[in-house]
Amino acid sequence: MNVLVVGRGGREHALCYKFSKDEAVSKLFCAPGNAGIAEHAECVNITETDQKGLIEFAKKNNIALTVIGPEQPLAEGLTDLFLAEGLKVFGPTKKASAIEGSKAFAKELMKKYNIPTAGYETFTNYQEASAYIKKKGAPIVIKADGLAAGKGVVVATTEVDALAAAEDMLEHNRFGRSSAKIVVEDFLDGEEFSFMCLVHGEAIIPLALAQDHKRAYDNDEGPNTGGMGAYSPVRHLPDETEEKAMTDIIQPVVQAMIKEDLPFTGVLYAGLILTEDGPKVIEFNARFGDPETQVVLHRLKSDLATLLLDLLQGKAVKTEWSSDTVVGVVIASEGYPGEYKKEQPLNDLLKADTFFYHAGTKKADTGIVSDGGRVLLAACAGNSVAAAGKQVYQALEAVSTDAFFYRKDIGNKALERS
């Protein structure tokens, strides 16, 4: 079969790398792709938001399955257009992707169907939001309602920080239309983890748990990012955690979407936190997480394309996993998640003795250069978090990372709790 992946980041590199190993895949394309993806797929010069171009390409090249990576084309209805043309696509419709595209929608859905999450209120007026924040106190969480590339969340430890975040979003349009409305949430204390499931209607295929690291710097300091590293599995969580998350959260929200006439097909990503009262939802995403996909798919032994097509066709699906732990460390451009320089050389860094998933890279006359905030993810597998982490950090320490930075503590929480 011919497969098309839409996107250009580390998540899409992980998808393409996995698809390239699948014997059922005869031709693999990625639009638009990046320098690393080009090693495994034919990159085509069509952007993620060029709906007409993507559909024409899929028809012309007899694409049997399209997988949409990023959230933006999903929110803009790319899946709907593919389905209207009779093309097989793995990704939610525009209306169903609102579970990520609007945090207010997700919170209202959870409230209606009694799905455990933090208490909240929504605001479009700063004065009303500030009064609520002052009433509640800190710590407290301020979220832009719409899509903000993983940067629209502020976990405020002080009232001053919370008020500043709310003002930045509502009064100063920090994220444009995405922050015209905000969600103000109670702070939840506990262990965070990511639970991605492949969903089609009522069918749910759980993927392995992972733990992401959102803050930019060591010890969970600095601003929120799209993710600075991850590892999988998360063995130190209680054995019943996944089952409880499935029965209390994943299954109820899948059924809720059906009842709301918004049946979900695609990756339902649940960002969860294990509290004293059990798992609760921090956020939902409507696609593969990044960087979780890189460490999770690195462990998946099953053929991904076959698995997805079987799911879409209503067949019974089983997954097989490596027993290894995979640790992934993001190498980011200095300044990220703020302003940063592009086109920084990567040739020396890429000599490190590790597997690299490319996120923001491109080919230039001088070789491969940076083309984004998060540039690479270095991944190593081992029989434990300690073993895999040691490998990846030794590899990175052996090369120059000038113009870039990375966290030195990915996986440390697992080591502290083991």
From TrEMBL:
Parts of the chain that traverse the membrane: none
Catalysed reactions, semicolon-separated: 5-phospho-beta-D-ribosylamine + glycine + ATP = N(1)-(5-phospho-beta-D-ribosyl)glycinamide + ADP + phosphate + H(+)
EC class: ligase
Protein name, per record: Phosphoribosylamine--glycine ligase
Family: Belongs to the GARS family.
Pathway where this protein functions: Purine metabolism; IMP biosynthesis via de novo pathway; N(1)-(5-phospho-D-ribosyl)glycinamide from 5-phospho-alpha-D-ribose 1-diphosphate: step 2/2
Organism for this UniProt entry: Jeotgalibacillus salarius
A Gene Ontology BP annotation from the UniProt entry: purine nucleobase biosynthetic process
GO molecular function: ATP binding; metal ion binding; phosphoribosylamine-glycine ligase activity
Keywords: ATP-binding, Ligase, Manganese, Metal-binding, Nucleotide-binding, Purine biosynthesis
This enzyme's EC code(s): 6.3.4.13
Coiled coil: none
One Pfam family per UniProt: GARS_N
Keyword Manganese: yes
Cofactor: Mg(2+); Mn(2+)
NCBIfam families the UniProt entry points to: purD
Highest taxon above the source species: Bacteria
Gene behind this protein: purD
Location of the ATP-grasp domain: 107-313
